[in-house]
Write a sequence for this structure.
């Protein structure tokens, strides 16, 4: 099942459109249910988006933010997703600290996965899951050749060992838990992603391709990533 492919002229145009769309979706969710549950992508690609959300003063006490994955590094390590997000967005937001739920990956993959799974108990479908995609087609910390937790009875959170990119120990939401999202939005930029996107377009099974939103799945792309001539 293919996502909706939304190709923007460049990364700046993508960030502007996506930030507006995310804020609109938050308003709709809050109007309908009084709360907005958002899963955040890690890594460096979405940082421009998070800075744009900071500029918009996006987020308040009705927003609840979760993490798609985290590296098992010290809690204050600069390359932790939680550290990058605090600097890029949360420090300038009105989202209360208790609504910002980083994965406690400093405890190690197995313990952190168990703890985060407990935190998610009783939490219903996410409103939006923001995800990236690597050059190998991985998303969150679900890598080719590793278990993706895509069976319906999979645990919500996976301990990832021997990941093919450092650090090897990680924690990730499972594909099954990500599939309990109303909307799944991928944020993909740069020419290095073209090969994986072509595989996805051609129907190959990748970690990214098994994650689907209940209402919609959208791949937000810049023109550099889109394999238009392939």
């Amino acid at each position: 099942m293919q996502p909706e492919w939304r190709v923007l002229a460049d990364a700046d145009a993508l960030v502007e459109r996506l930030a507006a769309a995310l804020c609109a979706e938050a308003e709709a969710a809050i109007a309908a249910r009084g709360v907005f549950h958002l899963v955040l992508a890690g890594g460096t690609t979405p940082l421009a988006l998070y800075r744009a959300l900071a500029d918009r003063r996006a987020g308040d006490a009705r927003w609840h933010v979760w993490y798609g994955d985290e590296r098992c590094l010290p809690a204050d390590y600069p390359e932790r997703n939680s550290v990058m997000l605090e600097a890029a967005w949360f420090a300038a937001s009105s989202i209360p600290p208790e609504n910002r739920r980083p994965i406690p990956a400093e405890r190690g993959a197995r313990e952190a996965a168990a703890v985060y799974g407990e935190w998610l108990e009783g939490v219903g479908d996410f409103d939006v899951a923001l995800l990236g995609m690597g050059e190998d087609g991985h998303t969150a910390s679900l890598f080719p050749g590793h278990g993706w937790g895509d069976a319906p009875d999979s645990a919500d959170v996976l301990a990832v060992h021997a990941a093919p990119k450092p650090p090897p120990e990680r924690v990730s939401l499972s594909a099954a838990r990500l599939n309990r999202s109303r909307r799944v939005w991928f944020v993909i930029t740069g020419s290095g992603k073209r090969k994986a996107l072509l595989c996805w377009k051609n129907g190959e099974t990748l970690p990214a391709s098994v994650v689907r939103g209940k209402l919609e799945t959208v791949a937000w792309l810049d023109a550099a990533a889109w394999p238009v001539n392939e």
Remarks:
- The chain has one domain: 4-222.
- The chain is about 30% helix and 20% strand.
- The domain at 4-222 is CATH 3.40.50.1360 (Rossmann fold).
